[in-house]
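ligand=adenosine-5'-diphosphate
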Amino acid sequence: MSIDSVDLNKITPMMRQYIETKKQNRDIILFYRLGDFYEMFFEDAITVSHELELTLTGKSAGLDERIPMCGVPYHSANVYIEKLVAKGYKVGICEQLEDPKQAKGIVKRGMVQIVSSGTLFNESLNEKENNYIGGIIDFNYGYAVCYSDITTGEIYTFLLEHNPTKLVSEIVSLGIKEIVVSENFNKDVYALLKNNFKITVSIFDEKQDLEQYHYIYEDIADARLIEAIKYLLSYINYTQFRDLSHLQKAIIKENKNYLKMDIHTKRNLELTETLRLKQRNHSLIWLLDKTKTAMGSRLLKNFIENPLVDQKEIERRYDCIEKLLEEFILTNDLEKYLLEVYDLERLSGRIAFGSANARDMLQLKNSLKVLPNIKDILTKIEFYKNIETLDDLYNLLEASIYENPPVTVKEGYIIKEGYNHELDELKELRKGGKDFIAKFENEERDRTGIKNLKVGYNKVFGYYIEISKGNIGLIKDEYGYERKQTLSNCERYISPILKEKENLILNAEEKIVDLEYQLFIEIRDKVKEYIPKLQNISKVISEIDCLQAFANVSSNYNYVRPKLTTDRLVKIIDDRHPVVEQVLETEYVPNDIIMDEKTNILLITGPNMAGKSTYMRQLAITVIMAQIGCFVPAKEATLPIFDAIFTRIGASDDLVSGESTFMVEMKEANNAISNATSNSLILFDELGRGTATFDGMALAQAIIEYIHDHIKCKTLFSTHYHELTDLENNLVNLKNIHVSAHEEDGNITFLHKIKNGSIDKSYGIHVAKLANLPDSLIKRANQILSVYENKEKKRDFIIQESLPLDDLIKEESEIEKELKKINPLEMTPIDAITFLYELKEKIK
Ligand code: ADP
């Protein structure tokens, strides 16, 4: 049964109301509030019951058939909403907008929020990661993108060339969870984001000019960026149904300010998650994240994904780390105070959103309490930014909020005594009433002589007198007890005096709860005015938190401050891979990476498992660590500032499916050589191995020559084609290095030590042996190898022959020689024509 096939004349008014709302929100699962439940109907009910394994029931609504229905209790709805959102659905929450008791006719209902993966706003979010939602405007010649984390209020925007692959790479690389696009957006990109990268894609075609958000883009001049910002804000407004005053001014993200890395590189280098298991464990961020606050942890991720290129900014971070290492007692205190700082960024969001409770206020107060100490330390270590301490806000919260408030804000027990006179009076009254009840219980025991007489309370009868079965005979009419309830072992009574006091107490109770709620909202609104200040504090705190994390790892793992040079010199002594070093059970073997001004390419040979890719990765990681402003895992390091890193290491996950590994490999190689500058770093691991030997070798050589002659950037190139090591003779900026293995009695051990020169043995069969392939198979492989090695001699000859071919191509042709001889300015037109004619004849 579908909503479109229902006869609206036959159906109940409530169901008609449902269908009308649903028809306007077809791509959204409606959580429809009915009393204490959210109910789903029709297709939604079937989907949800299936996805969440809930019982599918039915509701009679005037039709012959019952309408499919399934529901969840409203107080635990969050769990179900999160599960649906995690599966890529969007959930619309439809509330009762008026009190059912006071409603005339059918209760008014309306949508109060649409929850999707990019607009989630609750406890389940990972505090160490931002939750971004992005909007894309396609201008046909380019894209404008705006993305925001609505829990923290950050907004960024940038322009991008009209290249769908780059767009996808950027979106995935930023970790955006939900993308909003227009109906006529590129369908391939849409499908790719949705199916390959599990990003929620929402279609939305409205652009509003929302006055309350003008401040967000008032400093931005580019109309395209403004359009993208307005578009995203319109969507946020459409899903959240409220003004979000914590949204911050948009920041233009310019790629030229950061070390460029595409999504493959970020993944290959395992910066924020490992390649195979997609886990944070054993990634670079896992190693570096010694932050103490959630805000710091999120900023660290941002740092790692966006290394800097501005030397001054990088050195400033080094200076701070150096200071923190010197002042280790202050640093210790700083760590202690940072641990007390709550997630002020997301708290600001919750305050603006109206979902912050009294516990949040208490946490805010506790954070504010340590701000003077942090401020003091920042001054002492000469940190260039400082923080405001917001003493008046602290005093307000200290004077108003109890130390142990409940989660809900509508049950009282939030506001301290002494904060509000009227509240104190009401509490006195309530206390008087309760004191009276205690006294009354004693007096009645004396009067009746019933020792176990009790005064109790429940919601149905209010205050009552409870008498056990054996003592009932002792009750006299003159006491004025009126029987209300009979239980198996006792009877419960009420009395007029008790009822009178009960009214007083309950009245006071109700007023207290109302007043406390009202006072709490007032306090929350006051805190709201501090949001911009809290956001500024958050920025400084998260930055110093990241830098203390860097200081922490630098001292614990023996990292050094890099020397940044403007010369084209890489000189790293005893470099290590910081993560492998920590994870490895055996000792890590440090290696030097030296490329002087004349050396641009290191060609690395050596057997499998020797440590070639680890060596390449460790250079990239060292560069990234240096450019995020952290010390590096080496004894000594001199480095230039790189503008981009391109890698082709390990298995690639293709952005566009349906292409062979080799095709993807070539595309990545192309991406590198067409975008790299002389200041970039390229890492190619066994490029060309995905095709036949000669093909692969030819391509590898051509690519090396291209980089050598045209790009001239620092490059590490590992290969099994030891024929390529001859290139050292022809290419002046290329140097051979190798990782050797130690062979004894047919067994090999890997030393992981990089040395100059090349090696021509692959030890593939040895590695196969280490992997425990059957002995007979290994024997056979050795036999086949010796046959090939005999043939190889011939092949070597061919390769050597083919190398000078290159020179042949470079040799001047006849025509060129002739052309060089003449000077057109000194020729008569007739001579010129004759000369041209002769040239033409020569070609024939
Ligand atoms: P290759 O690329 O030459 O096949 P890898 O770089 O993948 O080799 O290294 C293989 C293994 O050797 C790694 O998983 C690591 O455990 C170990 N390894 C590599 N380099 C070192 C090193 N410098 N010190 C210690 N162990 C290393």
